[in-house]
Design goal:
109 residues, mainly alpha, 4 helices, 0% strand, rod-shaped
């Protein structure tokens, strides 16, 4: 598992790939450039693993930013119903009455 994590973070993955390519079997001496299928595995894993790790990192950063933004704006302690009430109240304060048209005095205006 640690090997996969190191490969996904792209730190030191080249050495691990070389060890995989040189591997033969359990309790056997490594042979140089024995199995090139490991190259394809590591390259695909790095592409997919790095993409996954990057998405996790960006997701956590954005979620934390939204939480901090709510606390700074004062909405962090409010529940969803209370936030809706505050929003409706602010709309009511900003609204203005509609001016009614006056009835004309004469027959022909």
């Amino acid at each position: 598992m640690l090997t996969l994590f190191i490969s996904a973070t792209t730190e030191g993955w080249v050495e691990i790939m070389h060890w995989g390519v040189d591997s033969v079997a359990i309790d056997k001496q490594p042979q140089p450039e024995n199995n090139f299928a490991w190259c394809i595995f590591f390259i695909l894993f790095i592409l997919l693993g790095s993409f996954f790790i990057l998405n996790l990192l960006v997701g956590v950063i954005i979620e934390q930013f939204n939480i901090e933004k709510d606390y700074i704006s004062g909405d962090g302690f409010l529940k969803d119903d209370q936030k809706e009430l505050v929003l409706i109240s602010s709309f009511m304060v900003q609204s203005k009455p509609i001016k009614m048209m006056e009835k004309p005095d004469g027959k022909i205006a």
